[in-house]
Amino acid sequence: MSAVTTSPSVKVFLLPDLGEGLTEAELVNWLVAEGDTVTVDQPVAEVETAKSMVVVPSPFAGVVTQLHGEAGTTINVGAPLISVTPPGAAAAEPSSPDAAADPEAEAYRDEERAGVTVPTDEQLAAAPAAGEPEAESGTGSGNVLIGYGTPGTGTGGRTRQRRGGAATAAGTPDQPKPDDGRRAVFCISPLVRKLARDAGLDLHSLEGSGADGMILRRDVERALGTSAEAPAPTDSGETATETRAEADRRSGLQITGRVPVRGVRKAVAEAMTRSRREIPEATVWVDVDATALVELRADLKRRQPDTTPGLLAFVARFALAGLARYPELNTRIVEREDSSQEILTFDGVNLGIAAQTDRGLLVPAVQRADRMSARELDAEIRRLAALAREGKATPADLTSGTFTLNNYGVFGVDGSAAIINHPEAAILGLGRIIDRPWVVNGELAVRKVTELTLTFDHRVCDGGVAGGFLRYVADAVENPGGVLADL
């Protein structure tokens, strides 16, 4: 079960299995705050898995009492995500009198009630609040097992503002007595409190740089004169974590940041590493005169400007025709229980289209592309590319391909020995189309030339099959009219 109950009055929703065997997700954004009233299946958080961005709905209705995580942290499947108090139920009381009387524990509970969680930029594990009961099994809407709610999901908004923690009974440098009229501070973890207390620093004198004025470790270090430089975004969209000024032992240069490998970048790294480790790949390529294809499309564009497919759709159509003749490239090798291997063949082609996005390289797949015309392929390629760029492609969109087409020519390069999209058996690459000198009928001419590159798994076929497929696609590009007439 993905939802459990901590007591008769508080329900804890655990991060569900979002599909495809994923074990963790990065919390991107909370859609609710503590103190909000939520309905069943109302979206409460946006998380990014290794496959896609997913909106997670609540299986419970009631008042949000605790958010178990901060934006940017990684949460394991099965770990607490959000706590909800059902309508009419009282908040859970501490089960231990000693814990209730402990000022440090009480202050920590105040922070938790105010929407603060323990994970820090040093990736410290969260410490449970004193007296917090263990989870027990419960029930929910049942619609969150793959990360999506049911149709007609409510959009209940916030009904009250987030509340700060109550002042504690004991007075410390960072915890005021009740009679001084000050609230308990927003602090990211007890360890940050201890750092300030050991240095004799009053946390009430600090302005937190976190959400809603939350005091982070860097705020304390800055006040103590030991703060590191502020983190900066990287080209990949990740944010470098703080790091004290230190020199790299290998290069001698100062280290300015550390970027965690997670989300899509982590998935890409793992897939590429596994592909190179497991697949004995080989690459063949050929230069192709694409002048006839460019002219054919230009002529169609003049006559049908709104429905003319792009060049990539035509190449995709030729590749699909080639796979019908050389189906060995549209296969997958899998291991059996006895450690032997077998080649899976498929009734159809799901054509993956490599798409560069702000979140990294994604490969959404056109389902049963072998049944589509060039116009249908063009429309579906554009639709899936838009979903990938917006982070809305589903895990099924991103993991169901059987053969991949990669148009790296859009980056201005001629060719590439691409890495196979594991566990597929081949990937076809298309370079940029440029004017080059070319011999036509014994005479030198300027033609539109591109390079086609095929990287294939040498376990599923030999060079003859790979060369035959690549030559078929190249001939189709050079003589598109003849091939399209047969499709």
By CATH reckoning, the class of the largest domain would read Alpha Beta
How far apart the termini lie comes to 50 Å
In CATH terms, what is the architecture of the largest domain?
Answer: 2-Layer Sandwich
Number of domains: 2
The 3D shape can be described as elongated
Q: Which key phrases capture this entry?
A:
alpha+beta, CAT-like_dom_sf, 11 helices, Dihydrolipoamide acetyltransferase component of pyruvate dehydrogenase complex, OB fold (Dihydrolipoamide Acetyltransferase, E2P), acetyltransferase activity, disordered N terminus, 23% strand, Chloramphenicol Acetyltransferase, transferase, 487 residues, elongated, single chain
Concise overview:
This protein is α+β, with helices and mostly antiparallel strands and 487 residues long.
Can you characterise this structure?
This protein has eleven helices and 23 strands. The longest helix has 17 residues, at 374-390. 25% of the residues lie in helices and 23% in strands. The chain has two domains: 3-92 and 133-166, RNA polymerase II/Efflux pump adaptor protein, barrel-sandwich hybrid domain (OB fold (Dihydrolipoamide Acetyltransferase, E2P)), CATH 2.40.50.100; 265-486, Chloramphenicol Acetyltransferase (2-Layer Sandwich), CATH 3.30.559. It has helices at 97-101, 103-113, 190-198, 217-223, 263-278, 291-303, 311-325, 374-390, 395-399, 463-478, 480-486; strands spanning 3-7, 10-14, 24-30, 37-38, 43-48, 53-57, 62-67, 74-76, 80-85, 136-137, 246-247, 254-255, 281-289, 331-335, 341-345, 351-353, 355-357, 360-362, 365-366, 403-406, 426-430, 434-440, 443-457. The chain starts with a strand and ends with a helix. The protein has 487 residues and is of the alpha+beta class. Belongs to the 2-oxoacid dehydrogenase family. It comes from Arthrobacter subterraneus. It is an enzyme of class 2 (transferase). Its EC number is 2.3.1.-. This is Dihydrolipoamide acetyltransferase component of pyruvate dehydrogenase complex.
